[in-house]
Design a protein that fits this description.
Largest sheet: 8 strands, mixed
GO molecular function, one term: ATP binding
CATH class of the largest domain: Alpha Beta
Protein name: Secretion/DNA translocation related CpaE-like protein
Domain Rv3660c-like CheY-like N-terminal: 7-114
GO cellular component, one term: cytoplasmic side of plasma membrane
Strand order of the largest sheet: 8-9-7-10-6-11-12-13
Oligomer: single chain
Number of domains: 2
CATH topology of the largest domain: Rossmann fold
Number of strands: 13
Length: 348
């Protein structure tokens, strides 16, 4: 695969560009002499020209091409715009103020174009409804279908999705390592940093006191997830924070798990009111109970997406560190399979 090209003799500028490229997960081809750039000029997905060699490059007369940028460490130098025109660049990037844009440009150059991954949100109508188990089950079912799947824990007080997977001791980054991130994140770097097991990549919270996830950090993770994964499953908190609102704005589908009893429906109505402010259609997953499915969904005014029977042995299985049963012969597995067929298509 061809790499972005940098042309400069300025070692300080080159150090900055190498650092920015590393943040984007990109490797560079570098030449210090404009004449030596000719073999790479048309093949490189992106060219960054140092202001120090712009006039020399213009004298060589390279053919016009898209995605050429002029980089400089000298702010507000009016001569840079003349040099920008001379080399056919589309913009002058002044470092360090333009570093975030340059990260995005490098990342776009090295990441292949993909169809955005679907984002499925799961929320609980009340505590103990089983939303986290459903989120994990959907993600496991998708990964077993060889879909690239990212499971995101967005509930700081939920106890950790890695625990439901029996992988709380697994090495890898947690939200505490990512909360300061803003701007673009390379999906290859994100996947490499996070715990991955059985084909499933997981972002959860660490043990102990946790901090809320800023909306900017969630946005960066979601954008990377949609670029690099077929499916992103997010376990939402019942009380929506800024990060949860960011997720709901990108949701392909939102599932609300409701227990089929009077208090469960009343509690779910409160959660539903918050969800509807930030996302489109919300569908109900009904946990079997004393009320009929039609009564539950009619009371809430939401479409029925399916039901999940009570599984008395499930709590004991999870406490042993076993993953939720998602085989085709289980009710949970059958629901997850049919739901993924509806969202992603039967060929997914």
């Amino acid at each position: 695969m061809d790499r972005p090209l940098v042309i400069t003799e300025d070692h300080d500028l080159l150090d900055d560009l190498l650092r920015v490229a590393a943040a984007a997960g990109a490797e560079l081809d570098v030449t210090h002499v404009p004449a030596h750039a000719r073999p790479y000029w048309n093949r490189a997905p992106l060219v960054v020209v140092g202001g120090d060699v712009a006039d020399a490059l213009a004298a060589v007369g390279p053919p016009p091409r898209p995605r050429v940028f002029l980089a400089t460490r000298t702010p507000e130098d009016p001569d840079m715009w003349r040099k920008c025109v001379a080399v056919g660049a589309q913009a002058v990037l002044e470092l360090p103020s333009a570093e975030r844009r340059l990260v995005d440009e490098f990342a776009d150059a090295v990441e292949p174009p993909t169809r955005p991954g679907a984002v499925v949100c799961v929320a609980a109508g009340r505590g103990g409804a089983g939303a986290s188990v459903l989120a994990v089950s959907l993600a496991l079912t998708a990964s077993r279908r060889r879909l690239r799947t990212l499971l995101i824990d967005a509930d700081p007080l939920g106890g950790g999705l890695d625990v439901l997977l029996g992988q709380e001791e697994c090495d890898g980054a947690r939200w505490s390592d990512l909360v300061a991130r803003e701007g673009r994140v390379s999906f290859t770097a994100l996947q490499a940093a996070l715990p991955t097991f059985a084909g499933l990549t997981v972002l959860s919270f660490h043990r102990g006191e946790v901090e809320p996830v800023p909306a900017e950090a969630m946005r960066s993770v979601l954008e990377a997830g949609q670029r690099g994964f077929d499916l992103v499953v997010v376990d939402l908190p019942r009380y929506l924070d800024q990060a949860a609102v960011e997720v709901l704005g990108r949701a392909t589908s939102t599932l609300l798990v409701v227990t089929a009893d009077v208090r469960g429906v009343l509690a779910a109505a409160q959660v539903l009111a918050g969800l509807r402010k930030h996302t489109g259609e919300v569908r109900a997953i009904v946990r079997d109970g004393v009320l009929d499915h039609e009564v539950v969904t009619g009371s809430l005014g939401v479409p029925y997406a399916g039901s999940i029977p009570d599984q008395p042995r499930l709590t004991a299985m999870l406490n042993r560190g076993d993953v939720p049963p998602t085989g085709r012969r289980t009710s949970l597995g059958r629901f997850c399979g049919s739901f993924l067929d509806a969202v992603l298509g039967p060929d997914a």
